[in-house]
Protein backbone atom coordinates (compact mmCIF):
# COMPACT_ATOMS: atom_id res chain seq x y z
CA UNK A 1 0.00 0.00 0.00
CA UNK A 2 1.26 3.46 -0.84
CA UNK A 3 1.51 6.21 1.70
CA UNK A 4 1.40 9.73 0.36
CA UNK A 5 2.80 12.26 2.78
CA UNK A 6 2.56 15.45 0.78
CA UNK A 7 1.14 16.52 -2.59
CA UNK A 8 2.05 19.73 -4.39
CA UNK A 9 0.24 21.02 -7.48
CA UNK A 10 2.20 23.43 -9.68
CA UNK A 11 0.80 25.38 -12.61
CA UNK A 12 1.40 28.70 -14.30
CA UNK A 13 -2.38 29.11 -14.84
CA UNK A 14 -4.16 30.56 -11.78
CA UNK A 15 -7.56 29.44 -13.07
CA UNK A 16 -6.36 25.84 -13.44
CA UNK A 17 -5.13 25.91 -9.84
CA UNK A 18 -8.46 27.26 -8.61
CA UNK A 19 -10.32 24.44 -10.38
CA UNK A 20 -7.86 21.87 -9.01
CA UNK A 21 -8.31 23.26 -5.51
CA UNK A 22 -12.11 23.01 -5.74
CA UNK A 23 -11.87 19.43 -7.01
CA UNK A 24 -9.47 18.49 -4.21
CA UNK A 25 -11.78 20.07 -1.66
CA UNK A 26 -14.74 18.05 -3.00
CA UNK A 27 -12.66 14.87 -2.67
CA UNK A 28 -11.31 15.89 0.76
CA UNK A 29 -7.70 15.85 -0.46
CA UNK A 30 -4.96 17.88 1.19
CA UNK A 31 -2.91 19.45 -1.60
CA UNK A 32 -0.70 22.54 -1.58
CA UNK A 33 -0.69 24.64 -4.75
CA UNK A 34 2.06 26.81 -6.21
CA UNK A 35 1.39 29.25 -9.04
CA UNK A 36 4.57 29.63 -11.08
CA UNK A 37 6.39 28.64 -14.23
CA UNK A 38 8.29 25.44 -13.43
CA UNK A 39 11.30 26.74 -15.33
CA UNK A 40 11.64 29.42 -12.62
CA UNK A 41 11.55 27.01 -9.69
CA UNK A 42 14.83 26.33 -7.94
CA UNK A 43 15.14 22.64 -7.06
CA UNK A 44 17.96 21.26 -4.96
CA UNK A 45 18.44 17.61 -5.75
CA UNK A 46 15.68 15.03 -5.95
CA UNK A 47 12.98 16.58 -3.78
CA UNK A 48 10.01 14.38 -4.70
CA UNK A 49 9.31 10.69 -5.16
CA UNK A 50 6.92 10.92 -8.11
CA UNK A 51 5.92 13.53 -10.67
CA UNK A 52 2.56 13.29 -12.47
CA UNK A 53 2.20 15.86 -15.23
CA UNK A 54 0.31 16.93 -18.30
CA UNK A 55 2.82 19.25 -19.99
CA UNK A 56 2.08 21.45 -22.98
CA UNK A 57 2.35 19.22 -26.04
CA UNK A 58 5.00 21.37 -27.68
CA UNK A 59 2.76 22.20 -30.63
CA UNK A 60 2.67 25.95 -30.10
CA UNK A 61 6.10 26.30 -28.51
CA UNK A 62 8.37 23.62 -29.93
CA UNK A 63 10.07 21.64 -27.19
CA UNK A 64 7.86 22.82 -24.32
CA UNK A 65 6.99 19.23 -23.42
CA UNK A 66 10.68 18.33 -23.33
CA UNK A 67 11.43 21.25 -20.98
CA UNK A 68 8.90 19.80 -18.52
CA UNK A 69 10.22 16.25 -18.88
CA UNK A 70 13.82 17.36 -18.32
CA UNK A 71 12.91 19.14 -15.07
CA UNK A 72 10.67 16.30 -13.86
CA UNK A 73 13.45 13.74 -14.31
CA UNK A 74 15.81 15.96 -12.30
CA UNK A 75 13.49 16.27 -9.27
CA UNK A 76 11.82 12.83 -9.12
CA UNK A 77 13.59 9.99 -7.34
CA UNK A 78 11.18 7.15 -8.25
CA UNK A 79 9.10 7.87 -11.37
CA UNK A 80 7.61 10.42 -13.73
CA UNK A 81 4.18 9.86 -15.30
CA UNK A 82 3.50 12.14 -18.23
CA UNK A 83 1.22 12.64 -21.23
CA UNK A 84 2.77 13.25 -24.67
CA UNK A 85 1.38 13.22 -28.20
CA UNK A 86 1.61 9.74 -29.72
CA UNK A 87 3.05 11.24 -32.91
CA UNK A 88 6.16 12.23 -30.90
CA UNK A 89 6.70 8.77 -29.33
CA UNK A 90 10.14 8.07 -30.85
CA UNK A 91 11.41 11.55 -30.03
CA UNK A 92 10.14 11.39 -26.44
CA UNK A 93 11.76 7.99 -25.82
CA UNK A 94 15.07 9.06 -27.37
CA UNK A 95 15.18 12.35 -25.43
CA UNK A 96 14.30 10.71 -22.11
CA UNK A 97 16.91 7.97 -22.40
CA UNK A 98 19.72 9.81 -24.16
CA UNK A 99 19.37 13.49 -23.27
CA UNK A 100 17.66 13.40 -19.85
CA UNK A 101 19.35 10.28 -18.47
CA UNK A 102 16.23 8.23 -17.68
CA UNK A 103 16.92 4.57 -16.94
CA UNK A 104 13.66 3.52 -18.61
CA UNK A 105 10.88 5.02 -20.72
CA UNK A 106 7.70 2.99 -21.17
CA UNK A 107 4.36 3.80 -22.81
CA UNK A 108 1.72 2.50 -20.41
CA UNK A 109 -1.24 3.15 -22.71
CA UNK A 110 -2.47 5.19 -25.66
CA UNK A 111 -5.43 7.49 -25.05
CA UNK A 112 -7.67 9.77 -27.06
CA UNK A 113 -7.64 13.28 -25.66
CA UNK A 114 -10.27 15.87 -26.62
CA UNK A 115 -8.68 19.30 -26.35
CA UNK A 116 -11.32 22.06 -26.23
CA UNK A 117 -10.68 25.55 -27.56
CA UNK A 118 -9.37 27.16 -24.36
CA UNK A 119 -6.84 29.68 -25.60
CA UNK A 120 -6.79 32.36 -28.30
CA UNK A 121 -4.19 30.43 -30.27
CA UNK A 122 -6.50 27.38 -30.51
CA UNK A 123 -7.95 27.57 -34.02
CA UNK A 124 -10.57 24.79 -33.78
CA UNK A 125 -13.47 24.39 -31.36
CA UNK A 126 -12.16 20.97 -30.33
CA UNK A 127 -9.32 18.69 -31.44
CA UNK A 128 -9.07 14.93 -30.85
CA UNK A 129 -5.44 13.96 -30.22
CA UNK A 130 -3.80 10.56 -29.73
CA UNK A 131 -1.80 10.75 -26.50
CA UNK A 132 0.57 8.33 -24.75
CA UNK A 133 0.71 7.92 -20.99
CA UNK A 134 4.39 7.37 -20.18
CA UNK A 135 6.28 6.09 -17.15
CA UNK A 136 9.87 7.26 -16.91
CA UNK A 137 12.30 6.07 -14.25
CA UNK A 138 15.15 8.42 -13.37
CA UNK A 139 18.71 7.08 -12.95
From TrEMBL:
> Which Pfam family, any one, appears in the UniProt record?
UPF0020
The Ribosomal RNA large subunit methyltransferase K/L-like methyltransferase domain covers 6-62
Which chain regions cross the lipid bilayer? none
Stated name of the protein: Ribosomal RNA large subunit methyltransferase K/L-like methyltransferase domain-containing protein
**InterPro entries, alphabetically?**
DNA_methylase_N6_adenine_CS, RlmKL-like_Mtase, rRNA_MeTrfase/Polyamine_Synth, SAM-dependent_MTases_sf
Q: Name one GO cellular component term.
A: tRNA methyltransferase complex
Q: Which GO terms describe its molecular function?
A: nucleic acid binding; rRNA (adenine-N6-)-methyltransferase activity
Q: Which domain of life is it from?
A: Eukaryota
User: Whose protein is this, by species?
Assistant: Cannabis sativa (Hemp)
